[in-house]
Amino acid sequence: QVQLVESGGGLVQPGGSLRLSCVASISMFSLYDMGWYRQALGNRRELVAAITSGSSTNVADSVKGRFTISRDNAKNTVYLQMNSLKPEDTAVYYCNAGRLAAPKVYDYWGQGTQVTVSS
After folding, report:
1. HSE-up of 34 (CA within 13 Å, CB side)?
2. What are the pLDDT tens digits along the chain (119 aa)?
3. DSSP state of 30
């Protein structure tokens, strides 16, 4: 059974840092594109950052220069380093794993970890 388990969330003051981790129990993890999404109360889920199987990265404009995504294929883990956190970063952060192996599409989600930025 595939599981994505996020950790590292919590309460942090504005300007602080957190590192989120997502451990994936997926075979052939290195073939998956991985992403971090977030959903604030009353808002839609939005993409924060993504990293492809080839380790190309993309981050949302709202977090560019503050958040960094990385992966460690040996540990089946993807990370989101979040610096200079702002109150508007408060949300539940979700890990996603996706892979297209036509005709199959693999798409998995974690349960989420809460990040609260407040003084």
Report:
1. 30
2. 889 999 999 999 999 999 999 999 999 999 999 999 999 999 999 999 999 999 999 999 999 999 999 999 999 999 999 999 999 999 999 999 999 988 999 999 999 999 999 99
3. G
Residue with tokens 């930025």: 117
The C-alpha atoms of residue 8 and residue 80 are separated, in whole angstroms, by 9
Residues 6 or more apart whose Cβ sits within 8 Å of residue 9: 18, 20, 93, 113, 114, 115
Calpha distance 52→69 (Å, rounded): 10
The dihedral region occupied by 84, where left means phi > 0, alpha psi between -120 and 50, and beta the remainder, is left
Among 111, 48, 110, smallest CA distance to 85 is for 48
To the nearest 10°, the Cα dihedral for 111, 51, 100, 91? Answer: 30
